[in-house]
Amino acid sequence: MKVFISADMEGTAGVTDWDQVMPDKPDYARFRRLMTEEVNAAILGALEGGAKEIVVNDSHNTMRNLLIEELHPQAQLISGSPKPRSMMQGIDNTFDAVFFTGYHAAAGTQDGILDHTYSSASVRQIKLGNLIVGEAGLNAALAGYFKVPVALVTGDVTAVTQTKKLLPQVEAVAIKEPIGRLAARSYQPVEARRRIKEGATRALKRAKDLKPLILPRPLTVELEWTYTAMADRCMLIPGTTRVHPRTVAYKARDVEQAFSVTMACLVLARSTL
Ligand SMILES: [Zn+2]
Q1: Where does Zn(2+) 1 bind (predicted)?
Q2: Domain spanning 2-120+134-209: which CATH class is it, in words?
Q3: Contact status, residue 14 vs residue 178, Cβ threshold 8 Å
């Protein structure tokens, strides 16, 4: 069995603030180590559940967070940015299951630690067809395009509950309970890792019965931005339409194209900041 892990950082045990997850901040060195250990817990659980090959894609910020020298030797690491498929770089139809570790809730979610969707500064909402999606939803849809189901999600209780609403079969491991956006009651890291490892094993034991998230094709992706200038820039992409001063839409032939247009718009939106 082959497992793809998309590893984010905000959903790591103990994280409640940007100061803990941004490389230029003093607390970051501690929390990148805790992030690495949670990914290792997911790897250990996956191996116990029957995984033979594991690819980890570092999916947070610069995508250079995980300490490769401390990563479990049976996993391979994709790191660095930019990557065309960003948080899902490396996914293809050879995988049997996807894990989302350290994930957080979508932009605009109440009581979600550091809630955002791909960019805190730029994105208000992303809609894929009729679904409002956060990172978990958008990334699960791309995995679904390759017919790979999401088997595990870890993060705060709001994030994993939101993911489970979209993917009812997913194994959800909640390791902290938000108190608003910037505070939480968390398991101690050792206990969080125990839960993640056990969750990963359970997830893989059920992996064969999981259904990938298959969205209709074609489908429209709608991107709502913080500022109108961001929507202005997205209009540079042929085929985009302005459905609201802050929102652009694009009718994509499939999820893969919708994902690419979203990534391109994120780059354009960032250029206005
Ligand atoms: Zn992140």
Answers
A1: 8, 10
A2: alpha beta
A3: no
